[in-house]
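Handout, page 2. Input:
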Amino acid sequence: MMPELLNLIALIVIFGVIMWLINVFIPMPAAIKTLLNVVVLIVLIIYVLQFFGLINPMFPVLKIFR
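Output:
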């Protein structure tokens, strides 16, 4: 359980950093930026729910730490 939890935390941190970099350094209209943030948030919520077994798998499991 511990390596899987570390993978989940690392995935959330990586997505957060990527989203921060996109929001800060890539100029785009506010509506598109908001939509992108909402889509990524929904994907991460689905991934967390999938991780804890609350929903059926929809996305493949990403392994950052082997």
